[in-house]
Design goal:
The protein is α+β, with helices and mostly antiparallel strands. 41% of the residues lie in helices and 8% in strands. The strands form two sheets. The protein has a four-stranded antiparallel sheet, sandwiched between helices. The termini are far apart.
């Protein structure tokens, strides 16, 4: 009799999970799977990484580290984590290709993924809440302390590769993640034998080191599977709110907001071109690059207008202008022409300019000074 009840409960859990996955697909998510709500397997790794300061100025990571390590601390009595992924555009429109290399990360080409993902996650949770009114559902998209990539890997959405990105062996890594942490008891993707597009979290990097070799700032250690955020161009351009170390400046020139290099060179993203996931219309590229010379003259209103509805709207004016100034400086001939040095000096002396921009201009001027004989 006990075995019969267990079998019945297993079938109920599997039926629930299949309905969840089907509902997610109907809402336009490219991938959906279910992971158990359990503690991270990498707690000590995270603590050591934080202790070394490799998170840089991302203090929120250390502030909620222990909470981040277990979804059951985020939602009391959580049993399951529903994980979804949206694919985003990887190719620029023909009209943009003539403008030069992209210097905005691809995920920021379209509408803000937080909004695009979150609205459909809420719809998913609301539909499940109607069927299961006693269950608790909490939606997250980079907005709560949760190790989304680890749960997504457990849910069959890919594996965590050498560059620390979640990589699906067929569909690549150009995906955005969302989760619903819930007290609803669901069969995991593993229990369902990884249906449809899901995959066991088996490492497919093998001996490949293309991401490590291609990183301009050596942010990925030789063995991979970790990241020194303080050297990562994505971190430096988007999260670091202080002046950038002079030795890293020439290596990040050309990137105003984010970086895709470690993904660009990944063989799985070449395979993904033959196995594309559907892309939500709101991720259609609307702006794939910025003119650094124009950015340098932006006002605060210009910044708001350019980043309205974009995931980049959290970038402060001083940050994007700092990045633009570094890019423009490293486009100058050596030695820098007097007109450019005058431009730097005028920025340093202009109190109306953001402090971060003035500090960066001062750095660049100092780098031009010749040592005394």
């Amino acid at each position: 009799m006990q075995g019969l009840r267990e079998g019945l409960n297993t079938n109920i859990r599997r039926t629930r999970s299949r309905r969840v996955i089907a509902l997610a697909e109907s809402l336009g998510f490219g991938l959906c799977g279910v992971a158990p709500a359990q503690a991270s397997d990498h707690g000590d790794t995270l603590r050591t990484w934080l202790a070394k300061g490799l998170h840089g100025e991302m203090h929120y990571l250390e502030d909620h580290a222990e909470l981040r390590l277990d979804p059951r601390k985020l939602v009391d009595d959580a049993l399951s984590v529903i994980c979804v992924a949206d694919a985003y555009a990887r190719d620029r429109p023909e009209s943009e290709k003539a403008k030069g290399p992209a210097n905005l990360a691809r995920y920021a080409w379209g509408d803000d993924y937080h909004n695009v993902l979150k609205k459909r996650l809420f719809k998913l949770a609301d539909a499940l809440r109607e069927r299961h009114p006693d269950a608790v559902f909490r939606c997250t998209t980079d907005t709560a302390p949760l190790l989304e990539r680890e749960h997504a890997a457990r849910a069959g959405l890919g594996y965590v590769g050498r560059n620390t990105m979640l990589i699906h062996p067929k569909h690549g890594s150009y995906t955005l993640l969302g989760c619903v942490v819930t007290t609803l008891d669901l069969a995991t993707s593993e229990d369902l034998h990884y249906p449809d597009h899901l995959t066991p979290p088996t490492d497919h990097c093998g001996h490949c080191t293309r991401c490590i070799d291609a990183c301009p700032t050596d942010a990925i250690p030789p063995a991979g599977y970790s990241l020194d955020a303080t050297r990562c161009i994505s971190y430096l351009t988007l999260e670091h709110r202080s002046p950038i170390a002079p030795d890293l400046q020439p290596r990040m020139a050309g990137h105003l907001a984010g970086c895709d290099i470690c993904q660009d060179v990944c063989p799985h993203n070449q395979t993904a071109k033959r196995n594309p996931l559907p892309i939500h219309p709101r991720y259609a590229p609307r702006n794939t690059r910025l003119d650094p010379a124009a950015v340098l003259d932006w006002t605060e209103d210009d910044r708001r207008t350019a980043f309205r509805g974009s995931a980049l709207k959290r970038m402060k004016l001083g940050m994007v202008q700092r990045n633009a100034l570094i890019t423009l400086h490293h486009e100058q001939p050596t030695p820098a022409p007097p007109a450019w040095l005058d431009r730097l000096q005028s920025i340093v002396q202009d109190p109306a300019r953001p402090d971060l921009l003035r500090q960066t201009a001062q750095q660049l001027l100092a780098s031009q000074s010749k040592p005394a004989d």
